[in-house]
Amino acid sequence: MSDQVSTKLERIQVELGQIVDERIQALEAVLQNAERMTRRLIKAEMELEHLTGNETDLSIQAQNLETQVEAARSRNAEIEASHQRLLSERETLTARQGELTAESADLRAAVEALRDEVQQAEQEAINLRNENTSLRTKAKTLQENVTRMRQLRDELMSSISGLTQQMSGLAGGDPEG
Description:
Blueprint: H1 2-172
């Protein structure tokens, strides 16, 4: 029996050795798996840390972009308000230009009418000058005629007076004649 016990013991020992080997292999597999998981975990933590840094950077960039967008919106609102003011001013100036154009056209028409009146007045002045010159010539001629008539009258009066004296002298025998 001792041989049997010894064989049994050997068999139990072999079985225990196999169980221990299996357990060691299983433990090594678990350790390898744990190492892989640890590496993955470390890698994931590093990636998370990297992503957290990226998120912070992106957050800062987003805030900067939001600030820029707000500034751009504000500037856009200012530009739109300025544009509206300029459009309003342009409309006012266009209306004023229309008024000035109409006023200019009226003034041009008035100037043209005045030019026509001035031209007519100048023509009338020329006609009146010509008529005045003609009247002066006629007046001079009449004055010359009046002067000649007076001379003729004086001559005639003198001649009549002389004849009257002669006739009185003939009629009355007056010695003066």
